[in-house]
Specification:
Elements lengths: L44 E2 L1 H29 L7 H8 L2 H29 L3 E2 L1 H27 L1
Parallel strand pairs: 1-2
């Protein structure tokens, strides 16, 4: 039997180009897909910026709770029936001033956390769970800050 016979089983058929598959030969050469089309063989890792965004969001929320608790306890002793002059004095109370500055620091943390969350969402081949949660936490805190500002402006 010779290799060019039409009844050939296809074994040791060397005159075919690579990538050619005939009906009798299942052991043909198939080119592997390019690297950008391959599925990852290892499980995906969590996004580093996403984890950082999540942690920043949690720390900021805990910081806000702590700030309001401490400022309330410090000012609570001064509050009674207030005249407008006394209300202005409470606004200049050191605990209120420090709480205001701490809230601004928290806002800056939330802005950084939002940016890191967005970066974590954009990264390819990474899990995006922490990035989504971190972006939501930080975004909600920023929206609450804006709402607090708008309520303050409307109360004037």
């Amino acid at each position: 039997m010779d290799n060019h016979d039409s009844y050939n089983s296809g074994y040791n058929n060397t005159d075919q180009p690579p990538g050619h598959a005939d009906q009798y030969n299942n052991n043909s050469y198939y080119a592997s897909p390019p690297d950008h089309e391959r599925q990852p063989t290892v499980p995906l890792k969590h996004s580093g910026p996403g984890i950082a965004s999540f942690v920043i969001g949690l720390v900021a929320i805990l910081g806000y709770i702590l700030i309001f608790f401490i400022a309330t306890m410090a000012v609570n002793e001064s509050i009674g029936v207030l005249t407008p002059l006394q209300a202005e004095q409470i606004a200049l109370h050191p605990a209120v001033v420090l709480a205001s500055l701490a809230i601004l620091v928290g806002l800056i943390l939330n802005l950084a956390g939002s940016i890191l969350g967005i970066i974590g969402l954009v990264l390819k081949n990474r899990k995006k769970v922490f990035a989504m949660i971190g972006t939501l936490l930080n975004g909600i805190m920023i929206l609450l800050f804006v709402a607090l500002i708008l309520v303050g402006i409307n109360m004037m």
